[in-house]
Write a structure and sequence with these properties.
Elements: E1 27-28, H1 46-57, E2 63-65, H2 69-83, H3 91-97, E3 101-108, E4 112-119, H4 128-131, H5 136-140, H6 147-151, H7 153-163, E5 166-174, H8 186-198, E6 209-220, E7 225-236, H9 237-242, H10 247-257, H11 260-265, H12 272-283
Antiparallel strand pairs: 1-5, 2-4, 3-4, 3-7, 5-6, 6-7
């Protein structure tokens, strides 16, 4: 069953930058940005989102590992402090209530942070179970052009996982509105998107979705743990572009500046050129 609740365009962040590069992009919570400056993102449309998350939890393949009860207590405390709601410090209760997916990391001697538990309902083309037991470098090994990201590992772990809550946005384009995107589905969906556009069934831009992960960190240095939160937002690309007249050109420029390796990593090798042309036509 598709799980495709969509975020309204006015709530979508726009983290597109040109030239595009793979970089940490972290900011301390407290830095000014358009979206709310909070660890957990809350707005009036969350009940629908939680309903879709409950459907995903019923499919039972988004959780892996054993959670540290002290970390669950810390997560429940954060939710209570921010919203006033009391949620049981139980992995299923938290997973059902929080719109964020979350990953628990252990700070282990001579290794650094290792993934020891995941509650990830809305992964972007990866399997949560595959990340269990991995450190930073192994988690990010599949990412193309990851040299700068891996070089920053020590600094990221120290600042974001041991010292202070941080935030970043990661954006991508998708051929599907589904919040959960299983591995190996993206390529055939992109192929169908191009076929539909070539046959005149649907315009190319009308079939593309803008997907953003709002990622935040909660360091728990007293117990050598940290939490990585992921809030997934999806909106039809056309609606996001219409929200600001400058966006179509900015997105086309970002796509043009991506390396072939990164374009392939995102599954967009055959799509980049026609999509860039469509964006520039939309902007003209």
């Amino acid at each position: 069953m598709p799980i495709s609740w969509q975020t309204p365009a006015e709530l979508m962040p726009w983290p597109v930058q040109t030239p595009f590069r793979v970089a940490p992009g972290l900011r301390r919570l407290g830095d000014p940005e358009p979206d709310p400056d909070t660890l957990l993102w809350r707005h009036g449309r969350l009940p629908d989102y939680r309903a879709y998350k409950a459907l995903r939890l019923g499919q039972s393949d988004g959780q892996a590992g054993e959670p540290d009860p002290r970390v669950l207590d810390a997560i429940a405390t954060q939710e209570n402090q921010q919203t006033g709601q009391l949620i049981a410090a139980d992995p299923m209760a938290l997973s059902k209530h929080l719109p964020e997916d979350f990953v628990i990391l252990h700070d282990e001697p001579e290794v650094g942070f290792v993934v020891r538990y995941l509650s990830v309902c809305f992964a972007s083309n990866w399997s949560p179970a595959d990340k269990l037991g991995l450190g930073f470098a192994a988690v990010h090994a599949p990412v193309a052009d990851n040299r700068a990201l891996l070089a920053a590992r020590a600094g990221i772990e120290t600042i974001a996982f041991r010292q202070t809550p941080m935030r970043r946005h990661v954006w991508l384009l998708s051929p599907s509105p589904d919040l959960w995107q299983a591995p190996n589905e993206r390529a055939p969906r992109w192929a169908q998107t191009l076929t539909n556009a070539a046959q005149g069934e649907h315009s190319l831009l009308s079939q593309v979705y803008f997907r953003v992960e709002r990622q935040t960190t909660l360091p728990l240095p007293a117990i050598k743990r940290a939490v990585f939160f992921i809030h997934v937002m999806v909106c039809p690309l056309i609606e996001v572009l219409r929200f600001d007249a400058c966006r179509a050109c900015a997105l086309a420029d970002a796509l043009d500046s991506m390396s072939p390796a990164f374009v392939a990593y995102r599954g967009m090798t055959t799509l980049r050129d026609p999509l860039t042309r469509a964006l520039r036509a939309f902007a003209s």
